Amino acid sequence: MRARRDEGQVTIEFLGMTPLIIITLVLMWQFVLLGYTYTLAGNAADEAARAGTAVPQGQRAGACQQAGLDKLPDAWSGEVECSTSGGYVRATVTLHVPVLFPGAIGFPFDVKGHAGAVEEVKD
After folding, report:
1. Distance separating alpha carbons of residues 92 and 70, to the nearest angstrom
2. Can you list the pairs that 74-79 forms with residues at least 24 positions away whose Cβ atoms lie under 8 Å?
């Protein structure tokens, strides 16, 4: 009769690999959130710069900031800075990268998106 010494070995190996599989999935999800935050920052900067070009100088900062924050999901918090020089409107959006769940705690570093557009309205 043959000895069955390796019975249950697959179960033991799977249980040993489970933490590694979970850590890999968590890291992949975090990289997805990081990439999505970069995408959101770039899009928000584009929207802010575009909105800033279509209004007179006195209303530009408010319109720029409002447009930059309008398209962001509620879970992503950030700041919008707009400037004008030489007929060119620049917008910079700074977003906080969430840790695992949007709306929860964030990493200690931020993601920045930059955009610019030529002024359409002259004062």
Report:
1. 15
2. 74/103, 75/102, 75/103, 76/37, 76/40, 76/102, 77/106, 78/41, 78/44, 78/110
Dihedral of CA atoms 70, 76, 78, 83 in degrees, nearest 10, equals -40
Q: What pTM value is reported for the model?
A: 0.77
Q: Reduced to 3 states, what is the DSSP secondary structure of residue 92?
A: strand
Alpha carbon distance 91, 115 (integer Å): 5
The CATH number linked to 71 is 3.30.1300
**pLDDT tens for each residue of 79-89:** 888 888 887 88
How many domains does the chain contain in total? 1
